[in-house]
Design brief:
8 helices, 5-stranded mixed beta sheet, Fructose-1,6-Bisphosphatase, Chain A, domain 1, D-Maltodextrin-Binding Protein, domain 2, 2 domains, 265 residues, single chain, alpha+beta
Amino acid sequence: MVHSALLNVMVKAARKAARGLIRDFGEVEKLQVSMKGPANFVSAADKRSEETLKTELLTARPGYSFVGEEGGKIVGTDQSHTWIVDPLDGTTNFLHGIPQFAISIGLEREGTLIAGLVLNPVTDELFLAERGKGAFLNDTRIRVAARKNMGEAVLACGLPHYGRGDLELFRREFSVIQEKVAGLRRFGAAALDLAYIAAGRFDIYWERNLSPWDLAAGTLIVREAGGYVTDLDDKDDMFVKGHVAAGNPVLHGELLKILKEASKG
């Protein structure tokens, strides 16, 4: 697959950061047996990854703005373009030596997502999309799953941390949905959950309490794979509200109906 100049910039940055995360991931596995544990080391790995991405992306496109999970927002001279970056999505997985984490890079132009990349450094799976050009896993075109029966669907979800988010609401939703689907999965990396929707591995997905860097790249990848991504009110305010639903057009709609009923208690 021949990448555009823009995607080449993103891929180069992601692969450079990925090399650092692979090295650090190896160290984390060694630290698991220590009394202090690897938490401080992982926080440093997260920051190093973001610094690598910021340096690479802003060197290639020096005027663009930059929003990262760790360092906040840098306002560039070209305020119509903004990189939206999660340097290590799935930090808890990384912390425990679980190889389900990703680098996520989204690019917004005047409020519209125009490019997205999600890379799992361990599996070397690179999910890519540009607006109007389709979605790809490495060099293969991907599409959302075509299933229309909720009873055959595998659903991915988030799980609120205790003391953060509405745990009772999630329990009601989970109880209702569990009876209607073939299976539920909680993998712990929102960017990869969305990428898996795009690749047809998951059929539907919902989660609350997310940030723009969790969603930006994956949202475009799903849409370019033929799927729907909205907030839980079926609007396009995921970045503001922090909640998301994704899937093919049929199951996405079914999911929203189920969640609405469950929310009434």
